[in-house]
Design goal:
Length: about 575
């Protein structure tokens, strides 16, 4: 038996696989370090390493090869596994967007029907198709579905089906079908159907419904669905396998029918109560309760009457109302403590807004057009300064990454340079784990609004550069065309942010698109099926002034690094309405 490499010993930046064309580990996706995002030849992949305590290596390889043949637009592709005397891992494509858990946070009381249909329509078709071949996802939950432009995509399809037991380390236990709780774990396409119905209910009613008992806590009606439709969904959501839907496409079909021709609910409260009682009660108990009810009724009729007692009304109690801190009451600036010591980058609160994005002054390139109105419905925090060498070096030392070179200009409070988009993303992942908050790169929308600071001019301070406001080639500073400057060396904009124009160009979350045709009109990450390039914003010490305008955007492969590229971070605000997440 081979002694394969222990996944617990894997480190960021480590080469795995063949020496001539290795995968370079970028960052782990789980606490056990068994799943990683890695780069190979400039392309990102998800690697899942064999775990000897979960099953046999033969089963791992056979399962990975079997599911590498599954093809569907709603399924993120799996590729053949890698096997050698040292390494055993499966390989999958990276899926963009945000996971379903994050997405449903925007709809705490349930998403609109059109949103729900968009999420699950293709997933239902994919599952029905693969189930015919007796294949299954096996661990469907909120984290195994990503949302890209409103469409649901399944990730890691079938990758854990080699395991002798699927446990809560790979699947949210709230989605376990009853058969998963038995000693000899039985997995069939019906297991996917059970999890699918739970996901659907979470989308229709809000994610918090998953923490309740489905047999007693599902409501009797749904405001957007007819009683007939809702009754069928309730039946399909029962635990017993015989109640689970045979066709998931049919589930979505009846929901879609309500979208166009909703029926009016005509059930009385009493009738719905009886239905709920019957639905949640075993037949034997119903018979016993009926007998008891008849006996009580007879006793009431035959019992001799007595004068009524005088009842003293109890004092009214005022229900306790939970006070939620409004957005306006949150601190304007924050420096959150890190678990390992020190603080995260200082961040500035940015309020909700609507603004015109793109070239408004007829000075820009085609990729800045057409100008269009964009809504940022929820506020966010963004770092006041570009991430510095001090901040990045702390992360690199903690995670075993190689320190990026400073070109001999010095480190400290200068913005970190010579880092790729993947490096920047890995930093945000680390900061998130260190603060127990959610950090990421800015969206293009967030970045441009933060740079403009309610202006419509080329720069926040006007249409031409001025000394003391920017560091660029011919901007009037001592660092122009020579090197980066310490962060905050120039004036801040009205939102309290420094170096939005010049110093170093900044990576953002979005994939690059040639223009704004079809661009989002509400704050979100704009992704693409083939995301070969990411976006840089803001210009740098090396660039001419027009490259540093608020609207300027240019592309670069995410693996590339340069001495005039850096980044800043956004911190999500967890608001009471659940609408804070835009990624």
């Amino acid at each position: 038996m081979n002694d394969f490499y222990d996944p617990k010993k894997l480190k960021i930046g480590q080469n795995v696989g063949v020496e001539l064309d290795p995968y370079i580990l970028n960052y782990p996706m789980d606490n056990h370090k068994t799943t990683w995002v890695a780069d190979q030849g400039g392309r990102p992949f998800v690697l899942r390493f064999f775990q000897s305590n979960k099953g046999k290596v033969e089963d791992f390889l056979q399962n990975a090869r079997k599911y590498a043949g599954v093809k569907h637009p709603a399924i993120t592709p799996n590729y053949p596994p890698f096997y050698s005397k040292l390494w055993v891992f499966s390989c999958s494509a990276v899926c963009g967007g945000e996971n379903l858990y994050s997405f449903l946070g925007k709809y705490p009381d349930g998403a609109p029907l059109n949103v729900v249909i968009g999420l699950f329509d293709n997933i239902a078709k994919a599952l029905d198709q693969v189930h015919k071949n007796d294949l299954l996802h096996g661990h469907l939950d909120l984290n195994s579905i990503h949302v890209v432009n409103g469409l649901g995509l399944m990730t890691g399809f079938g990758v854990h089906n080699w395991m002798s037991q699927i446990d809560d380390s790979v699947m949210d236990a709230r989605f376990f079908p009853p058969e998963y709780l038995k000693k000899g774990q039985k997995r069939t396409p019906a297991s996917d159907s059970f999890a699918f119905m739970k996901l659907l209910m979470a989308a229709l009613l809000g994610e918090s419904i998953l923490d309740k008992d489905f047999t007693t806590s599902l409501p009797d009606t749904h405001p957007s669905l007819s009683d007939t439709t809702w009754g069928r969904l309730l039946k399909w959501s029962r635990e017993n396998e015989r109640h689970r839907p045979k066709s998931l496409v049919e589930v979505i079909r009846i929901i879609r029918a309500n979208l166009y021709k909703p029926e009016v609910s005509n059930s009385s409260v009493a009738k719905r109560a009886v239905k709920r009682y019957v639905r949640n009660t075993k037949p034997k108990i119903i018979v016993i309760c009926t007998f008891v009810a008849i006996s009580i009724l007879a006793a009431i009729i035959l019992w001799p009457s007595t004068p009524p007692e005088k009842i003293t009304p109890a004092p009214k109690t005022v229900p306790k109302v939970e006070v939620i801190t409004p957005f306006e009451a949150l601190p304007q600036t924050l420096e959150e403590p890190l678990i390992s010591g020190g603080t995260a980058p200082k961040i500035e609160k940015i309020p909700p807004a609507t603004f015109i994005m793109g070239d408004q002054n007829r000075m820009g390139d085609d990729n800045e057009k057409p100008p269009h109105e964009v809504d940022i419905p929820n506020g966010f925090y963004i770092s006041k300064y570009e991430v510095t060498f001090d901040q990045y070096d702390k992360f690199a030392n903690a995670t075993g990454r190689e320190l990026p070179p400073d070109n001999g200009w010095g480190r400290g409070q200068r913005p970190v340079i010579n880092i790729s988009w993947y490096d920047a993303k890995a930093y945000t992942t680390w900061i998130s784990s260190q603060t127990n908050q959610e950090y990421r790169l800015p969206t293009e929308i967030e970045w441009e609004y933060s740079a403009r600071a309610d202006s419509s001019t080329s720069f926040w301070y006007g249409n031409t550069v001025k000394p003391g406001y920017s560091v660029c080639d011919s901007c009037g500073s001592q660092w122009d065309g020579v090197s980066s400057a310490q962060v905050g060396s120039q004036a801040s904009n009205p939102l309290g942010l420094f170096d939005m124009h010049g110093n170093v160009a900044e990576w953002v979350e979005d994939c690059y698109h040639d223009n704004y045709d079809g661009a989002p009109t509400k704050n979100e990450v704009w992704l693409a099926n083939q995301c070969e390039n990411r976006v840089l914003r803001g210009g740098s010490w090396f660039d001419i002034p027009r490259v540093g305008r608020s609207a300027t955007r240019y592309r670069a492969e995410p693996v590339l690094k340069a001495s005039n590229w850096g980044f800043r971070v956004v911190r999500i605000i967890q608001q009471s309405n659940g609408l804070s997440k835009s990624e």
